[in-house]
Specification:
The chain contains five helices and seven strands, in the order βαβαββαβββαα. The chain is α/β, with parallel strands linked by helices. The chain is globular and about 55 Å long.
Length: 194
């Protein structure tokens, strides 16, 4: 059984990908299986750079083909911000609440609120590097709605929907989300290698 490493400690993300890879006969390990690893500084200028940096580090650390991702919210009227700094928009140790509050403040006088979530997944192995992109278009609303999700989910309404990501079930969100789309491309590629 071929092993892969997911460079994440997020149990939900791990279980989701583990179930998909198990169908292909792959075994997924995670950052939780390798204590003692360093935290990878996400200091690259774009999402692809951060995803590749994390995947390269974990491949070198474990010797396993390694999968890593980075995600950002791009708001058109803010020239693509918060973008690569989405998790640190209100400061290095900012909470989701603080990031959303800053975003809503910056958009308070704006009529144009179109935005997109973008995810880049990198897969690094001994002799190959692959990158998979997923995008979900939508808009930022004026107030938080919904109790699910995380990050900017309570203020992001995907195109063609009336509910925020935080109001959708995890299954509904995964079918249309940026991460779901990038993951589907990764799974298709892995399936082609079997």
């Amino acid at each position: 059984m071929k092993k892969y490493l997911l460079a994440s400690g997020n149990r939900h993300k791990i279980e989701e990908l583990k179930a998909q890879l198990a169908k292909l006969g792959f075994d997924l390990k995670s950052a939780l299986d390798y204590p003692g690893a360093e935290e990878v500084d996400e200091d690259q200028p774009n999402l692809e750079g951060n995803a590749l940096k994390k995947a390269r580090y974990w491949h070198q650390f474990t010797g396993l083909p390694s999968i890593a991702d980075d995600t950002g919210l791009e708001v058109d009227t803010l020239n693509g911000a918060p973008g690569v700094r989405s998790a640190r928009y209100a400061g290095e140790k900012a909470t989701d609440e603080e990031n959303v509050k800053k975003l809503l403040h910056e958009l308070s006088s704006k009529d144009q609120r179109t935005a997109r979530f973008r995810t880049v997944i990198a897969l690094v192995s001994e002799d190959d590097e692959q990158v998979f992109h997923g995008v979900c278009e939508g808009e930022i609303i004026n107030e938080r709605r919904g109790g699910g999700g995380f990050g900017y989910d309570p203020v992001f309404v995907p195109a063609g929907h009336k509910q925020t990501f935080a109001e959708l079930t995890p299954e509904q969100k995964n079918r249309i989300s940026h991460r779901g789309r990038a993951s589907a491309k990764l799974i298709d590629w892995l399936n082609s290698q079997v």
